[in-house]
Amino acid sequence: MSLGVSNLVVKGRLDGVSLQCRRGLVTAICGPNGAGKSTLLSCMAGLLRPDMGDVLLGERPLSRCSTAQRAQWIGYLPQSPEVAWDVSVEVLVSIGRLPWKDAPAKEAQDAIDEAIAAMDLEALRHRPVSRLSGGERARALMARVLATRPGWVLADEPFANLDLAHAAALMRRFRQQTKAGRGVVLVLHDLATAMNHADQVLVIKNGKVEAEGPPEIALARDVIHRVWNCPARWLGDPGERALSLGQPSPFTLDSR
Ligand SMILES: Nc1ncnc2c1ncn2[C@@H]1O[C@H](COP(=O)(O)OP(=O)(O)OP(=O)(O)O)[C@@H](O)[C@H]1O
Fold this sequence. Notes:
alpha/beta, Rossmann fold, 6-stranded mixed sheet, binds adenosine-5'-triphosphate, translocase
């Protein structure tokens, strides 16, 4: 089932954005601060109702799906790693099973155990979240999303607080999700991660689409220059690219 938005308008925040995400692919949403990335992801998760336009899960408007269906299909990781309740890691992760409250207990426990292992939280399973580091808390929140086993993972800056090894492990996990026929949509500031790991990229600025397509096209140096006002060039081989930045001055730009 695809997940798409067409002509989405949220006054002052999104101005006619369209995007089609397919299962089996990692889609990255990139853009400068305030571009509307989180707003778009919230609309796609059904948490923010647009002023105009549609969010479609397959053929069906998301607004016509029940809350339970939405929660079963879409796992959403918000940008800020805050937890309202001081529960243990295991209890926090088990909240991810609430949309499937009628599923067999063994299935629920397997999903929780798998998510805890995937996010390397075994040693912290019984620790209250108030006693976790920022990165550990971010991993616990991601594990909650994975425990749902949703058809779609929508994650807003999922690598922001993670160290190198945990970020790489999470990227591998996202790739496993897509290989299993699920869809992954990530808001990313790190353009190298988007370039090396996304299958398609949407670039937005001031609530409008600036570029979209395969990473090599959507994140070409002229797009980066125009959207971020930063001269930059890609180094290295495909899949291992690094971004070399120049001075963000209009007088030193080299668009070759
Ligand atoms: N609750 C809100 N009500 C009104 N305007 C908002 C609200 N939240 C964000 N905005 C504004 O909407 C615009 C888009 O915000 P959004 O959070 O979607 O940007 P973003 O691309 O995710 O930015 P960042 O990279 O800084 O996280 C910004 O100008 C922001 O100030």
